[in-house]
Amino acid sequence: MFNQEAFDQFRKGIALLREDVPGEAMPHIERAAELDPMNPNYVSYLGLLRAVVESKWGEAERLCTEALRMGHRQPQLYLNLAEVYRLAGRQQDASDTLGRGLRYAPRDYR
Fold it and tell me: Could you tell me the pTM of the whole model?
């Protein structure tokens, strides 16, 4: 079932990410994931923010891989996990993740 509050929180968080204020985005994305923990986008972005804001590499990787299990055909989920790996200095894992993502979205320009 669609959760409007979760969606609104997610949108606010993404807008703040685009404004390059990830610390301000974090509570909105956390709330979205709390309200709808089965939404892979919310979980994946929460993982990304755990890496960007808190440098919690293990938790970030866990959340992003959990999101991929929920929605493995969504290119953004691969991009988020790859960014977590890149930030953690794991370039080969980032590259491998992007390669896996290309199987599901070969024409995705990102």
Answer: 0.95
